[in-house]
């Protein structure tokens, strides 16, 4: 692992990151009041064939939490943490935030960026891995928003999406600490026997198979790049946790959660709740759930893991703990800064250190047209070659 953390000496004048004049934090968005829930779900599911029953069920999850998803507040905290990190390290780059499905909407943020006089924007999507939902769909959202700005006669912006950060040490290391901390929450008697269950969002199997760049060796593996990348992270965490705790055989299972879509369409399995049952039947004394698929403790974590899976475990009498997501860990904000600086250097034609751990290497900077295809029909997407 190479160290590319090189803060400017304190007192030095802040430096920019040419050619970029802004960073955009691009996220999913979530409701912030009960009356937001139905319109939010309509935004998410428009034209996606999600069964009505599933929508009612997901609406119920949000209402259980007062109609407020934690995701927007978590993104406000990340935005503040990024601004603080940039300021402390002498990086003079304004940071903006926009969402796919709720205010502040991406298109409004891009209008604001243009009005502030910025033209070249680096984009960090709050999705660490390859796949349609986490990569191309955001690039389609960018293309749509840019088209709206063009129709309005606003100045043209160029947007560059930063590479997938799933194997950046600034993302993985906080999760190693969080997994060790979760193990320590378990009763001492079951701690050493506890198994690890790495969880992520289930997606349709066909979407998993086609995830990633066709040229990327990870895509050729069963499950495509989405599964291969998650397995790589799971192995890194399992190995580090084995070393830290002196217990080598906790397993390293990748399991899935938050399945939606029609029941006859195959999605990635096993589901976390079925997995807890199987682990219990297999004699596991405890399980630690490690939500490697997510960057903050949003609704998929608070409901699907902390509520539903925890209830399943209680019913089984299986002790469980859940590892925290990276959130605003300073190693993660430093990683974002490094990704911006690395990409800026690459865009200037300079050599850049591309920090990555595990077996797959750093992801590509610019997605291919055939990367993570839209499962329905091809649509214009920004930031591709
Ligand atoms: C891979 C992936 C991530 C992880 C990467 C990333 O973080 O981007 C993710 C994150 C999230 N998903 C979220 C919420 C929802 N996802 C849905 C539906 C879907 N997700 C999908 C995939 C993913 N989703 C897919 C293939 C669908 C089917 C419909 C479609 O093809 O688009 C639905 C519809 C209802 C349902 O069926 O669940 C909702 C409400 C929230 C917000 C949580 C909050 O409010 O705190 C977040 C962060
Ligand atoms: Fe989702």
UniProtKB/TrEMBL annotation:
Q: What is its EC number?
A: 4.99.1.9
CDD domains, alphabetized: Ferrochelatase_C, Ferrochelatase_N
Positions binding Fe-coproporphyrin III in this chain are: 69, 138
Where it sits in the cell: the answer is:
Cytoplasm
Query: Where do transmembrane segments lie in this chain?
Result: none
Q: Which reaction does it catalyse?
A: Fe-coproporphyrin III + 2 H(+) = coproporphyrin III + Fe(2+)
Is the keyword Lyase in the record? Answer: yes
User: What protein does this entry describe?
Assistant: Coproporphyrin III ferrochelatase
């Amino acid at each position: 692992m190479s160290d590319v953390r090189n803060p400017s000496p304190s007192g030095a004048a802040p430096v920019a990151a040419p050619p970029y004049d802004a960073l955009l934090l691009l996220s999913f968005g979530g409701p912030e009041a009960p009356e937001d829930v139905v319109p939010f779900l309509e935004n998410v599911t428009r034209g996606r064939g999600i069964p009505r029953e599933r929508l009612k069920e997901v609406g119920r999850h949000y209402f259980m939490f007062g109609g407020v998803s934690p995701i927007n507040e978590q993104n406000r905290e990340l935005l503040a943490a990024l601004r603080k990190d940039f300021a402390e390290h002498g990086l003079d780059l304004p940071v903006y935030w926009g969402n796919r499905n709720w205010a502040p909407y991406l298109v409004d943020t891009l209008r604001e960026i243009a009005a502030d006089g910025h033209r070249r924007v680096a984009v960090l999507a709050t999705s660490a891995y390859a796949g349609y939902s986490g990569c191309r769909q955001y690039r389609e959202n960018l293309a749509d928003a840019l088209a709206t700005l063009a129709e309005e006669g606003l100045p043209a912006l160029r947007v560059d999406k930063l590479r997938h950060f799933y194997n950046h040490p600034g993302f993985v290391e906080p999760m190693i600490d969080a997994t060790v901390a979760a193990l320590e929450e378990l009763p001492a008697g079951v701690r050493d026997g506890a198994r690890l269950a790495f969880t992520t969002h289930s997606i349709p199997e066909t979407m998993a198979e086609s995830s990633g760049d066709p040229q990327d060796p990870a895509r050729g593996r069963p499950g495509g790049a989405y599964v291969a990348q998650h397995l790589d992270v799971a192995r890194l965490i399992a190995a580090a946790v084995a070393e830290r705790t002196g217990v080598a055989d906790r397993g390293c299972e990748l399991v899935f959660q938050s399945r939606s879509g029609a029941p006859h369409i195959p999605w990635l399995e096993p589901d976390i709740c079925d997995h807890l049952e199987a682990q219990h039947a297999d004699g596991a004394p405890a399980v630690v759930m490690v939500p490697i698929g997510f960057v903050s403790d949003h609704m998929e974590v608070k409901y699907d893991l902390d509520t539903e899976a925890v209830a399943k475990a209680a019913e089984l009498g299986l002790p469980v703990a859940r590892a925290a997501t990276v959130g605003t860990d300073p190693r993660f904000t430093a990683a974002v800064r490094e990704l911006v600086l690395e990409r800026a250097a690459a865009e200037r034609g300079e050599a850049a250190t591309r920090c990555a751990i595990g077996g797959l290497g750093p992801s590509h900077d610019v997605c291919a047209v055939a990367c993570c295809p839209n499962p329905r029909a091809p649509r214009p997407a920004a930031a591709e070659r």
